[in-house]
Design goal:
By secondary structure, this protein is mostly helical. It contains 21 helices and six strands. Helix content is 50%, strand content 5%. A three-stranded antiparallel beta sheet has the order 1-2-3, with helices on one face. A three-stranded antiparallel beta sheet has the order 4-5-6. The protein is elongated.
Amino acid sequence: MRNPTYLSLSRDGVYYFRFPIPKSLHPSQRATTVKVSLGTRDPKLALCIARRMSYASERVMQQGLATGMQYEEIRAVLKQHFSAMLVRQKTQIAEHGRMSSLDAYDAAATFADEAVQNDWPLIPGGDDAEHLAGFIERYNLPIAAGTAPYESLRAEFPRAWRDYCKSVRAYDQTLDRYDYSGPAAQPQVEQVPSTKGMPLRELVKCYTAEKLRGHAWAAKTEIEKADHFRLLSEILGNDTDVRALTATDAKRVKDILLEYPRNRNKNPNTRGLSLSDALAVQGCETLNAKTINKYLQSYSDLCKWAKTNGHVDASLFAGSTVRLNKGKAAGNRDGFSGEQVQKIIQALLRNDIVSQNKPYQKWGPLLALYTGARLNEIAQIHLSDIRQDADGLWYFDLNDEGDDKQLKTRGSKRFVPIHSALIEIGFLDHVQALRQSGTTKLFPDFTYCPKNGWGRALGRWFNDTFLVKLDIKTPGLVFHSLRHTVITSLMQTGVPEPVTQAIVGHAQQGVTHQHYFKQGYTLTQLSSAIEKLPYRPAGTRPVA
């Protein structure tokens, strides 16, 4: 199981939360790490608790680090803010003429001066917290309420506001007369100071939080994206102003990805090295084009979101991909031949390769061969998902109900009839025995991995042991090839493509199926289609 950096597993199998504390927040000015036992051996529960603790720790650290903003830096931001306001006011006067009344500015300056002298709120009877919070958010200032910098900002804000009001008043008064002495002044266009952008670290955090809140990513995707953004921050710098990034920076990221060592943190030659040192190691296998494009797609999506939300002006990484040879890319996964399928079925029903003490070795691949379901769809089945309809037809209810289930797409939620061959070789008898034992899952021994779901043990055994012992292992033949085999077989036996899509959980194509056929095919229709699979165990008879 590959855990996030803040989650570790002890030798006793208990999970711990680990979080680094920067030396700037330590009383002795040295870096250290907090380590807290989560009191559980359940990987999913541990991950859930650790995520919340990590978020809370980040918030605490932000507040702690916020104390580092100096007084002069606060004054500089205030000056920048009100200077920009003054420029805009002068521009408005130049376009539309002098202000009709300055009473409001006179009153505001008076209130602000009284606030400075008496330490009152800027707005009489009000509270400064709201407009200070807006100011801090606008400029992304590292200032937290209750800290010394916050009190400095609260004290300086009315002074800056007072002098801004006086400056507007003074500028308007200069228009009371004309000065003909000296050369004629040339009109000048004053530039509004640019607003500082968000640090890359904060952008990634906000983007990730929105995706997680909308449940847009599966657990595996979340871990994958975190790895992608971790490398991006390592290349560009956590504190880099995202508004200052250019196409040159995007090219630099792509160039590094092209040279980036595969499995950098696992390879003993690159593990623990800095990025520059890791890139300098000779003879390392680099990322393939498909993986590079995954990184670039993550960065493109991040920048597109940042542009939509006003954090950047340009969407970097758009179209920045490595072009793949479509002919070669399409051959990554193969289907099994008819001869190989029969060899697999025969081996699964014997006991020389398949362990009787590990029923998943037999039933996992067989379910894949007769449903076309994905590895994790099979691995997470509950016994309550194995049902019988009013006509006596048995089926799998593949769903994402409950905290321990996930589906790849909306179309993955479906009913799949149980093939008659599975029933004849004793699958329902096996299910009944499990129910009588009191368990709730079809494969109760499986453990959850945030990155790989529930099916890791089944996939590893099938790919690395079973296919090898059958002497049919090739780079293109893996557990997922069983799904390819089902799809190909159904299409070759004349099953219409929409029916095949309904069985294997592919999104329906075309307006008719997408918008008007939402009830789907009946179980009887699906069962008739799935019974056309051309392979069966020896001794079983096709349904008439």
